[in-house]
Amino acid sequence: MGDVSRQGELTPTVAWLFAPAFLCLVLPARSAVAVYGAGPVGVVAAMTLFVLPLSYAVPPGRALWARCRDPLLVVQAVLTYVPFVVFGQDWFVGLAGLLGGLLLLTVGAPASWVLFGAVLLLEGILRADSSWSLTIWALTGPVNMALALFGLVRLADLVHDMHTTQAELVAMAVARQRLRVAGLLREAIGDRLQAVTAHGKAALALITDSPGQARDRLIEAAGITRQALDQVRVTVARDDRAHGPPKAGREGDTADGIQGGTVAPQVARMVLVVVLCAFSAQTLVNVLETAADVAAKVGACTVIVAVGALQLRHTRDRRDGVRPQGWVWTFTAQTLLSVASVWVFDEVNLLGMAGFAAGSAMLLIPGRWAWAAFGAISLVAGTTMVAYSTYGLYDAVYAATGTAAYGLVVYGLSRLTDLALRVETAHRELAGNAVVRERTRVARDTHDLLGLGLSAVALKCDLVVRLIDRDDARARNELEQLLRIIAESRDEVLSVTEDVRGHLSFLHELATARDALAAAGVEVRTDLPVVPIPPPIDEVLATVLREGITNVLRHAAAEWCAIRLSATEEAVRLRIANDGARPAEAAGTGLDNLRARVGALSGRLTAADDGAGRFDLAVEIPLVL
């Protein structure tokens, strides 16, 4: 199979044009035919029937229909059936399909289909005394017109939906993922932090009267905190392993069960098949009624079946950007059968099948050549009609516009089926990818935001244990800071899962880092000139500082840690250095996260271990105005 050119992809603007173009092409032909039985007044009556369908097919008209749907449907019904009262059986067959199409578009299912069935039933009753061919036309004509209008408008809706609802689907998928991870994090550390808070408050009350019990409480709190720290490191990874990459679901489902699409693929297929069958039936009736002899009838019927079968193949096999194998030959055969067979069987009604070939040209031929072939087939149909015409130019225009109109229907409904399937798949993939991105974000933020806070809590507990009975006043002060850090850590769990955190501040993180390092007995050396830093860069530097200090506390037996910030007109630079690094672990596990954050601002992160226990983490971010 060959690739379909992406130049033929539909945009919302182009998709909106199909239904109005179809109506505008059908309108002159149907209005002109009405003159035979109803005269000039019939032409005016026929033309007025197209006004309300055109108003719905054009997007600005939807507002009027939203406010006045029922009165407008009543008006369309009056315009549809009053001519039957005035002109009787001479009134043109098939225009009731416009009312049927509006019912399908504006009334919710299944009521819309019931009402459409009532329109067909009424049409059959009104034509009960007509010939068999006219009776069949009375049923197939409205079906053809109604489903063509319905399908082309829904095609535009589907393309518009594909371009506008993606953000909503992504948001829903992300929200579900956040709820899942929030539950996991609450299970992993929420209760533990609450227990640590209880132990901290109890220790604060026991320092003076029962210092031994206060120590026991804080030792237990430190153990619980370290358990929480270990647990939070594996929680998101466990969730990712448990759920894996998003899987394709049933048609109509997106990731996490989200529904997508405005027309179900099953309905799109049904609309296409019914319209193709109805239009083929109309041509078949004409041939059986006018063909010269039995051989011509059999041959012409064979052509109709063959052209219809080829169309179903072109439509069915054109999926996911590929054309059916051997399409050049099948398209050529379909075109020749639609046009040349008119001369072979001397049956001009076979020109009705030329719309199928015009639609296939739009489906199969790449780029602008598709439009050229579409126009050529319509022109050939018009010029061929001249040879059989008694009305000259009128019949040529009728054949050309009819071929173009139903070529658009064939193409539009084929694309409707194709797009319905593609949109369902795209929505699943889109929402699934959003879930993966959210898992990555939560994993990154969990590591970057919670690691230092939990490490600081554990170290504070250790520090207060050492201070009890040696400096109770400082122990109380450290305990109060401990409770504040625990509260911040609980807030950070919320910020990770709900993405509601505020702007991280480098200076605030520096204060926390000093506190945590001091609690671990690490000397802090800083060189921090007062320079204005843009908020996005400030936030990334705060995250780098937090991760860098977490690594110092986790992966080093440091005696000192130096933090240096500098800035020029071109860039901001942050350097974090420490001694006591363990070579096997000095880089920690969060540097990939930091590189991603720094890289997003076109910055560069380097990490170096000199092999003698000194570890340097450096970041440089350009100042982009």
Architecture overview:
By secondary structure, the protein is α+β, with helices and mostly antiparallel strands. Helices cover 72% and strands 6% of the residues. It is built from 18 helices and seven strands. The protein has helices at 12-48, 51-57, 62-87, 96-106, 111-126, 132-164, 166-206, 211-243, 265-290, 294-317, 327-344, 354-364, 369-388, 393-467, 472-498, 506-519, 535-555, 591-600, and strands spanning 2-3, 322-323, 523-527, 560-567, 571-578, 604-609, 615-622. The strands form two sheets. Strands 3-4-5-7-6 form a five-stranded mixed sheet, covered by helices on one side. A two-stranded antiparallel ribbon has the order 1-2. A hairpin with a 5-residue loop joins β6 and β7. α1 (12-48) packs antiparallel against α2, α4 (96-106) runs parallel beside α6 and α7 (166-206) packs parallel to α14 (393-467). The longest helix has 75 residues, at 393-467. It is elongated. The protein starts with a strand and ends with a strand.
Question: Characteristics of this structure?
Answer:
625 residues, alpha+beta, two-stranded antiparallel ribbon, 18 helices, 7 strands, disordered N terminus
Mean pLDDT: 77
Largest sheet: 5 strands, mixed
Radius of gyration: 37 Å
The count of helical stretches stands at: 18
Helix coverage percent: over 70%
Sequence of strands across the biggest β-sheet: 3-4-5-7-6
Strand content: 5-15%
- What would you call the structural class? alpha+beta
What is the approximate shape? elongated
SSE run: EHHHHHHHHHHEHHHHHHEHEEHEE
Please give the number of β-strands.
7
C-alpha termini separation:
50 Å
Outline the low-pLDDT stretches: 1-8, 244-262, 585-589
